[in-house]
């Protein structure tokens, strides 16, 4: 097991370097001058502009800028944003909010998606199965910003069940509605994936053998069908954690949440490559670690899988 974990960690190094390089290059190639954008309508003097370019290494070639940034990452120095704040401080302020929001969304989509998908798969072709498939298809078809505005208006404004906006209060109650909106599309995918996997495993030979041995249907479903059906679902959930955090821009914008999404959007518009890449770097690390955890969970779900 330790050997497998060590090998996977070594495999993450080139993925990490390649992903950060691509993100840094894309931000670097954005049109416009970030120093000029920093000044707004007022033109900077050549001396001040040169000083700012030297401060943020913008006077260096692209590869040198990237290597200087990478050096700072390995020494836990994420640099300074164009506003003068350390990027690490911006990270520390934005990430806990988005992590909390994403974990809530992941829990909602995992619990309800697996639950509804399991019952639909066990009753394939029935009214419940057809209903949840129709509802999940409607959720997938509607853009998330439409779901967000509708939920905010009806649940938050018209009915007053939860606060319509979050602002600086990131309590569980305030983040509940944004978490539901953020995890809604993934909930539909988890539901359909679980339903299909359960329905397929119900017709497998090992299920018929377990039933022929006299095991109760409840034990067959819990021990055999559900555990084997969860393998593709766990794979999706592991990859979806970083996707939720990176895709929270729309949700955080609708509900006025000062998290990762809004910070990345503002940094991209200002051309702040260190800030954007720092946030994406943390997302890449979370994605890689989540996939490592998923691989380790395979052995817990399927006893035939062993890492030696």
TrEMBL record:
A biological process from GO: transmembrane transport
The keyword Transmembrane helix appears for this protein: yes
Family of the protein in this entry: Belongs to the binding-protein-dependent transport system permease family.
Domain of life assignment: Bacteria
Cellular compartments per GO CC: plasma membrane
Keywords: Cell membrane, Membrane, Transmembrane, Transmembrane helix, Transport
CDD domains, sorted: TM_PBP2
ABC transmembrane type-1 domain ranges (all copies): 95-298
PROSITE patterns per the UniProt record, alphabetical: ABC_TM1
Topology of this chain in the membrane: Multi-pass membrane protein
Subcellular location: Cell membrane
Record-given protein name: Dipeptide transport system permease protein DppB
InterPro entries assigned: BPD_transp_1_N, MetI-like, MetI-like_sf
Chief localization: membrane
Organism: Rhodococcus wratislaviensis
Segments passing through the bilayer: 12-30, 97-120, 132-155, 175-191, 225-250, 276-301
């Amino acid at each position: 097991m330790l050997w497998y974990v060590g090998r996977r960690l070594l495999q993450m190094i080139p993925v990490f370097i390649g992903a950060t390089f691509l993100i840094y290059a894309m931000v670097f190639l954005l049109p416009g001058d970030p120093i000029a954008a920093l000044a707004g309508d007022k033109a900077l003097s050549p001396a001040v502009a040169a000083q700012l370019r030297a401060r943020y290494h913008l006077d260096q070639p692209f590869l040198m800028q990237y290597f200087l940034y990478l050096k700072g990452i390995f020494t836990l120095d994420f640099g300074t944003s164009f506003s003068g704040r350390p990027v690490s401080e911006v990270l520390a302020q934005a990430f806990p909010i988005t992590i909390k929001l994403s974990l809530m969304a992941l829990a909602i989509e995992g619990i309800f998606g697996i639950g509804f998908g399991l019952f639909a798969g066990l009753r394939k072709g029935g009214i419940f199965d057809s209903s949840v498939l129709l509802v999940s298809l409607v959720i997938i078809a509607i853009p998330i910003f439409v779901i967000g505005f509708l939920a905010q208006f009806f649940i938050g404004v018209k009915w007053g069940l939860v606060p319509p906006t979050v602002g600086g209060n990131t309590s569980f109650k305030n983040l509940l509605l944004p978490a539901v909106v953020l995890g809604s599309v993934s909930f539909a995918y988890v539901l359909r994936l679980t339903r299909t996997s359960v329905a397929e495993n119900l017709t497998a030979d090992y299920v018929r053998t377990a039933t022929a041995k006299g095991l109760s249907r409840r034990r067959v479903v819990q021990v055999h069908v559900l555990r084997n059906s969860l393998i593709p679902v766990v794979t999706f959930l592991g990859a979806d954690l970083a996707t939720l955090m990176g895709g929270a821009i729309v949700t955080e914008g609708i509900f006025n949440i000062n998290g990762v999404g809004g910070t990345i959007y503002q940094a991209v518009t200002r051309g702040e490559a260190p800030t954007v890449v720092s946030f994406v770097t943390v997302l890449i690390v979370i994605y890689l670690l989540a996939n490592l955890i998923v691989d380790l969970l395979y052995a817990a779900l399927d006893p035939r899988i062993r890492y030696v």
